[in-house]
Amino acid sequence: GTLMAGGKNVILDRFNPQHTLDLIQDPKVTLLGAFPPILATLLDLIETETFDLSSLEIVAGLEMPETVKKWEAKTGSTFWTMYGQTETSGLISFSEYFKQPGSAGEISLLAFVQIVDDLDTFLPMNTMGEIVLKGPLVFQGYWNAPELNEHTFREGWHHTGDLGMIDSDGFLFFKGRKAERELIKPGGENVFPAEVEKAILQHEAVENVIVFGVPDPKFGEGIKAVIALHPGKKLIKEELIAFTGSLIAGYKKPRYIEFIDQLPKTEDGSIDRIKVKTDFS
To answer: Domain-by-domain residue ranges, the chain?
Structure first.
C-alpha cells in the first residue's frame, strides 16, 4: 500500500535498535511495525540517547499495555493493535490500542467475521469460539492441498484456527490458537510446539514432553516444556536447553522448563495436553 501511494518502505534484514532509531530519524519514518521485545529495547536506548522521532505517527503490532503507555508518552506516536493472517492478505481488525483495551481492534469493512463452535454453529456476541471469515481479503486456498482446503473452507468460511470473541461494540478479541492449530509466537516468530517436542524427545533421558506458550515479559510469549523423564534418568534445564538449541533454531528453544514424574493421561491413554497447559501455565 505504501509503495502504491508513492511512499517508501524501509526494510531491515534484522533488528538493531540503534539502526532502527537512526532510520526513523532519516528518512523520517511515519509508521513502524513492532512485536515484543522491539519497543522495550528501543525505549532502553531512548533513555540514554537523544533521537528525533517526531515524524513517527503510528506504531502497529502487539505489545504489553505498560510498554505501550511508556512508548506513547516518550514519542508522541500512537500504538495500533491488530489481527490478521497470511491467509487473509491483510488486517481483519485494527484500532488504537486503548480504544478497547485487550481487544485486537475493530473489524474491517472488508471482512465478514463470525465466531463458531466445533460444529460450525454461529455463536452470539461475547462468546468464545473459532474465528471464521469471508471477504475479498481471504486467499484462494493452499497450493496442491485439496483436503486441507476442504477442511479450511468448510461451510464456505475460512476457518482461521484461532479462538476469539466479538463484543457488542464490534471489537474482536483474540484468545489463542485451537489445540490442533496451536502456534507459539515469541517475539513475533512462529514456533510450532510439535517441532520443539520432536527435538526434546531425541534426548535419551526424556520419556514424554508437552510444549506450549506462556506469557513472557520480554517477548510477549515464551516457550515452556513440561517433561517426564525415563525412570532413573536425570537432566538439568540448562543441559536440555543447549541440547534443543543444537537441533533447532535458537528462538525455538524453551525458556521455561518444568520436570514432573508423569504427564497426565486421558481415558484413552494419550497425554492430556489441556490438563498439562491448565496445571502448568
So the answer is: 17-76, 108-178, 182-280
Query: Could you tell me the end-to-end alpha-carbon distance of the chain, in angstroms, rounded to an integer?
Result: 40
Residue 81 and residue 64: Cα distance in Å, rounded? 11
Q: Determine whether domain 108-178 maps to CATH 3.30.559.10.
A: no
SS3 content of the chain, % helix, strand, coil (to 5): 30, 30, 40
Residue given cell 501455565 in the structure block: 281
Looking at per-residue pLDDT, the higher value among 7 and 44 belongs to 44
Question: pTM of the entire structure?
Answer: 0.72
**How distant, in Å, are the alpha carbons of 21, 159, 226, 233 from that of 259?**
42, 35, 6, 12
Choose among 260, 159, 248, 150: nearest CA to 199.
248
- pLDDT at residue 181 tops 80: no
**Cell numbers 493452499 correspond to what residue?**
142
CATH number 3.30.300.30 is the correct assignment for the domain at 182-280: yes
